[in-house]
Amino acid sequence: MTASKLITCILDKSTTSFDIVRALKDEHQITRANVGSARGTGTGAKGGLITMPQEKHILQIIVDADRADTIFEWLHDRVELDSRYGAFMFQEELISAGTFTVPDAPEEEG
């Protein structure tokens, strides 16, 4: 077990989240990532307006603690966080995390 951090990113529901998971594996050899979805709404809208629930993707990535800041910055730039309305991300320490490797899919027979 190695010291790890969990990076969580809340994004609009789109294929972008899955593209990021592929890029994490291809570019950074990170295989401990998950995409979930949720629906919710904020409170306290200006002018007392009722807000409609929105679908969001919750992207969670476990990274070794010594790479967490680098991956966090890469992810921030990759998802263009500063220009996405309602998106945010954070990281937190994990007590421990085991290694998980996703095997390559077998070749399809033609």
Broad structural category: alpha+beta
Query: Span from first to last CA?
Result: 41 Å
Q: How many distinct folded domains?
A: 1
CATH architecture: 2-Layer Sandwich
Mean pLDDT level: 82
Q: What is the CATH level 1 assignment? A: Alpha Beta
Largest sheet: 4 strands, antiparallel
CATH fold-level name: Alpha-Beta Plaits
Shape: globular
Radius of gyration: 16 Å
Number of strands: 4
How many H/I helical runs? 2
Uncertain regions spanning at least 5 consecutive residues? none
Strand order of the largest sheet: 2-3-1-4
Taken as a percent bin, the fraction of beta residues is 35-45%
Can you walk me through this structure?
The protein has a 4-stranded antiparallel β-sheet with strand order 2-3-1-4, with helices on one face. It has helices at about 15-30, 70-80; strands at about 1-10, 35-40, 55-65, 90-95. The chain is about 20% helix and about 35% strand. The mean pLDDT is about 80. The chain is built from 2 helices and 4 strands. It is α+β, with helices and mostly antiparallel strands and about 110 residues long.
Summary?
The protein has 110 residues and is an alpha+beta fold.
Secondary-structure topology with pairs:
Layout: E1 2-12, H1 16-28, E2 33-40, E3 54-64, H2 68-78, E4 88-97
Antiparallel strand pairs: 1-3, 1-4, 2-3
Name its key features:
single chain; 110 residues; alpha+beta; Alpha-Beta Plaits; four-stranded antiparallel sheet
